[in-house]
Amino acid sequence: MLMQDKVVMVAGVGSGMGRHIALAAAREGADVVLAARTAAQLDEVAKEVGALGRRALTVPCDLTDPATAERLATAALEEFGRVDAMVYNALAMPPIEGFGTVPLEALSTAFDANVLAALRLTRQLIPALAENKGSVVMVGSMVQRFSEVSMGPYKLIKTALHVTAQNLAAEYGPLGVRFNTVVPGQIWGDTLRGYFGYLAQQRGDVTVEDIYNEVAAKINLRRLPEEDEVADAVLFLISDLARAVTGQALDVNGGEYHH
């Protein structure tokens, strides 16, 4: 098993990607630390982890709070005595607005809540990760790969996360710690299904399946990646299969675009 008896922290666990990442790690033999705002959601994922025969520590917290990083790292080490990998999947959505009009205060707040929050947590975990030659994966977005007027703040955050991972790879590579980014394309799950439903309703003469087929027709594999497939890519990057991979971005998009 790829992660047998290792400990994986997932920062940002909801019903979507965070859940799939945690369960993928547990299926491969890892115990998991689950961090997010909603305690009930964490408890549900913890039950699923337990059904797979692994342990889960739930830590309800606000990752934008500077005090959270130390508390989360301490809780993980007190419970398990080690942390082998951390996946940063948390997102405080920034304003969807162009750089020419977005309030700079809001942009600054979004940068702190996302990029600096990820860096704060990572810094707290460095000693434990170095002890076990561990790995960090930042979850990016296809928005990094193109420019769309209203998505500037979101692109800034996701690109900054990748740059952060690259520099950390250079800084802590000598200690054996690896840092990478996974860059999903459009992910077929509840959120996108709901959006396609909205588009179908607006057009009035098509179904969700029609919208899906229109989008998939432009993708090399003629289908959209699903959440568990992105989770598998994350699992690869934190596992020893990627032991010589650091400072990289792995695009998971079915061939929607090439980078």
Automatic annotation (TrEMBL):
Pfam families attached to this UniProt entry: adh_short_C2
Signal peptide location: none
Transmembrane stretches, start-end: none
PANTHER family noted in UniProt: EG:BACR7A4.14 PROTEIN-RELATED, ZGC:101858
Listed name of the protein: SDR family oxidoreductase
Organism name: Catenulispora pinistramenti
